[in-house]
Write a structure and sequence with these properties.
- This protein is α/β, with parallel strands linked by helices and 393 residues long.
- The chain has two domains: 51-241, TIM Barrel (Alpha-Beta Barrel), CATH 3.20.20.10; 258-392, Lyase, Ornithine Decarboxylase, Chain A, domain 1 (Beta Barrel).
- Helices cover 26% and strands 23% of the residues.
- Strands 1, 2, 13, 16, 17, 18, 19, 20 and 21 form a nine-stranded mixed beta sheet that branches.
- β14 and β15 form a beta hairpin.
- The longest helix is centred in the middle third of the chain and has 16 residues, at 195-210.
- The chain starts with 16 loop residues before the first strand and ends with a strand.
- Bound molecules: pyridoxal-5'-phosphate.
- Residues 57, 59, 105, 185, 220-221, 236-240 line the site of pyridoxal-5'-phosphate.
Length: 393
């Protein structure tokens, strides 16, 4: 129960919440996930891509936001198709959305076909060997479930080569071939001017011609913003659903989804010239008030966001919101702790047991990523396992 004051809960917490993890008083931080915002983001992407269908990518525990609650909420909101990386994730999606179509992106492990059938998941086939194995399984077992063919159009990560397409297209003319989708993946979608976008889109257009009558999917989150030529029959957003900016050169059209609050365990006075934290990497330029909060790099707050006298990896000093003011993160990030300079707050404005906001209250996932020298995707998927989690809807 979140009844104790002071609490990490935002003022206007809605009654319908799902929680997981330890009670608030037993953790260093509380992670709030706004399921309405995820569904809102899905709807806005879906409207942008219409008449194409809009799937949802929920791999990596729905980018750290919780695969089961996120899947259930999106399914309730009208999403019918989900993409995951692994079979184990497909199981989680199946439990949360019994009617969903589920594609597994990361290839079929040898011998795994019966597992796909048993949970009614569709493999995304990226090699001839997988195709042959899947085809043999379908013939032997009578399983009629579908699969996708993934073609490599220039990223050189996963997928069949375009040279293999004509032979496969001939197979797909047979009845009950079970190929429900062809897809490819853009390498540079978040850079709209990159030559590879046009080259990949054009290569995929030719594949679509070969596979006339089979649904086609090209765009991830950023790809949706490349315009209708990239929409095909189905788009596959992940990051944008969870609030990461799909158009990094322009303002973010997505709603923020997560709020991360960390408990203040001490407020201390630090004399001018005294260091704070490991390596004495920060020294007080004046007499300072410092809040020590109980989240660190073991919780997924990247150590690279801390102070490094030789110049840190990230663009600017990290910040957290305390008492509605942004305060700088100072010194090294420890495993379980970090320090904030709260000298700008009035004395007593922040005290032991209050919460500092590390993500949310205006601090975006993308900002934290910048401070850490990484991308929003990694900030989300690093979110620690120790938090109390609260899904609001
Ligand atoms: C992860 C992934 C996506 C989703 O990408 P975002 O950039 O998060 O929208 C789509 N397609 C494939 C093949 C992926 O691996």
């Amino acid at each position: 129960m979140l009844t104790k004051t002071p609490s990490a809960a935002p003022a206007a917490t809605v009654p319908q919440e799902i929680t997981a993890g330890p009670p608030e008083l037993e953790t260093g931080g509380v992670l709030f996930i706004d399921l309405n915002a995820i569904v809102f983001n899905w709807r806005s992407l879906m409207q942008r891509a219409v008449p194409a269908d809009c799937a949802a990518v929920v791999k990596a525990d729905a980018y750290g936001c919780g695969i089961e609650p996120v899947t259930a909420e999106l399914a309730k909101g009208g999403c019918r198709t989900f993409f995951v990386a692994h079979l184990a994730e497909a199981r989680q999606v199946r439990a949360a959305a019994p009617e969903a179509v589920i594609y597994v992106l990361n290839g079929m492990a040898p011998g795994s076909s019966p597992i796909y059938a048993s949970i009614d998941a569709r493999p995304v086939i990226g090699t001839m060997a997988e195709f042959v194995e899947w085809d043999a399984f379908r013939r032997a077992s009578g399983w009629l479930g579908g699969a996708a063919l993934h073609f490599d159009t220039g990223m050189n990560r996963l997928g069949l080569s375009v040279n293999e397409a004509p032979a496969l297209a001939a197979r797909v003319k047979m009845p009950d071939h079970g190929i429900a989708l062809i897809m490819t993946h853009l390498a540079c979608a978040e850079t709209p001017g990159h030559d590879l976008n046009n080259a990949q889109t054009e290569a995929f257009r030719q594949l679509r011609y070969l596979f006339r009558g089979v649904s086609a999917s090209l765009a991830n989150s950023s790809g949706i913003f490349l315009g209708p030529a990239a929409h095909c029959d189905m788009v596959r957003p992940g990051a944008a659903l969870y609030g990461v900016n799909p158009t990094p050169a322009a303002p973010n059209l997505m709603e923020p989804v997560i709020t991360l609050r960390a408990r203040i365990v001490q407020v201390r006075h630090v004399e001018r010239g005294a260091p704070v934290g490991y390596g004495a990497a920060w020294t007080a330029p004046r007499a300072s008030r410092v809040a020590i909060v109980s989240v660190g790099y073991a919780d997924g707050y990247h150590r690279a966001a801390g102070s490094f006298p030789a110049g840190k990896k990230g663009a600017a000093p990290a910040q957290a919101v305390v008492g509605s003011k942004r305060c700088p993160v100072i010194g090294r990030i420890s495993m379980d702790l970090m320090a904030l300079d709260i000298s700008a707050l009035t004395e007593g404005a922040a005290k032991r047991g209050d919460f500092a906001t590390l993500i949310g209250d205006g601090i975006t996932v993308d900002e934290v990523a910048d401070w850490s020298g990484t991308i929003g995707y990694e900030v989300l998927t690093s979110l620690g396992r120790r938090y109390r989690r609260v899904w609001m809807r």
